[in-house]
Amino acid sequence: MSPSWKNDLRRYGLLVAAILLFLVFSIVDLAWFRPAAARYDEALKQAGNVGLALEPEHAQPMIPPRLFALISDNALPAATAEEQGNSGELTAELLGDLAKLTGKHGIMVLTTEPGQLTQLPQSIQVRAHLRGRCRYAEFVALLDEMARGQALFSVDRFSYAAQPTGDAILELWVSRFVLKQQKSR
Asked: Where are the domains of the chain?
C-alpha cells in the first residue's frame, strides 16, 4: 500500500468506518426491525378490536368488586325497569322494604304513601313518604342500615318532632334509584 493511501486511510478511516456502520444499521433496520414493529402494531390493533388492551395507557379501569355488586343489585334491563316503574311495582317494593326496615328497628309506622316516580335516561327514581313513631336511637339505627345496605336509598328530607311521651313523630321522604341496564356497545 502506498504511503499516500496510508495517510488518506488514517485521515478518513473513522469516516469510512462510520459510513459502514451506518449502512449495517440501516440494513438491519429495514430487514428485521421495521417488519417486526409493523407486526406488533397490527397485533395491537387486532387486540384493541377484540377489546383487549395490552398497553397500560389504553387499559380500561377495573370496577372494584363491591361497587360492581352494588350496581348489579340495583340494575334492571331498561324495558323491565320502565315497565315495573309504570305499573307501580317499584314503588310497592320500596314501601315494602321501608316497612321491613322500620319494623326491624322498632319504628311504628303510622302512614306510608307513594311518591312521584321520575324516569331518567339512565335510571328511575322512586319516592315514598313515611310517617311513624319512634325514639331517636331507632331512627339513627334505621338511617345507618339504609346507608350500609345494598339498595341505593337516599333520604330526601325528614322531620323529627319529639313528643312529651318520650317518642317522636318521624316523617321521612325517601328515594331509591334503580339503574337501567343499557345494551353493550
From this structure: 3-58, 75-181
Q: Is the pTM of this model over 0.85?
A: no
Measured CA to CA, the distance from residue 97 to residue 103 in angstroms comes to: 10
User: From first to last of its 185 residues, what are the pLDDT tens digits of the chain?
Assistant: 677 777 777 778 888 888 999 999 999 998 999 999 999 889 888 887 777 766 677 667 778 888 888 888 889 998 888 898 888 899 999 999 999 999 999 999 999 999 999 988 889 999 999 999 999 999 999 999 999 988 889 999 999 998 888 789 999 999 999 999 877 55
**CATH fit for domain 75-181, picks 3.30.9.30, 3.30.70.60, 3.30.470.20, 3.40.50.1460:** 3.30.70.60
Closest by CA to 123, choosing from 94, 152, 95, 98, is 152
Phi first, then psi, for residue 107 (nearest 5°) are: -90, 125
